[in-house]
Write a structure and sequence with these properties.
about 80 residues, mainly beta, three-stranded mixed beta sheet, two-stranded antiparallel ribbon
Length: about 80
């Protein structure tokens, strides 16, 4: 049996929680919400769709997580 991190994802239709396992983070059995993972840029996000599509038992909806990247230019000092 392996270890993993868990990301709590609200169903986009009814809001019921789904608990997705990811093996791309620390794999220290950490639990976090999707908002926390995004805010902290947690590596577990990279593998959040490992078992997708997810199925909500409450409203019978299939869903997954869309990851959107943003690019921001940064200044590099002391480059010669």
């Amino acid at each position: 049996m392996g270890v993993y991190d868990t990301i709590s994802i609200p169903c986009p239709k009814c809001g019921e929680w789904y608990y997705a396992q990811s093996k791309s983070g620390e794999c220290s059995l950490k639990n976090m919400s999707l908002d926390e993972a995004v805010k902290n840029n947690d590596p577990a996000l990279y593998n959040v769709n490992r078992h997708a599509p997810f199925f909500c038992d409450s409203c019978h909806t299939y869903f997954n997580v869309a990851l959107k990247m943003t690019a921001v230019p940064i200044i590099l000092d002391n480059i010669k």
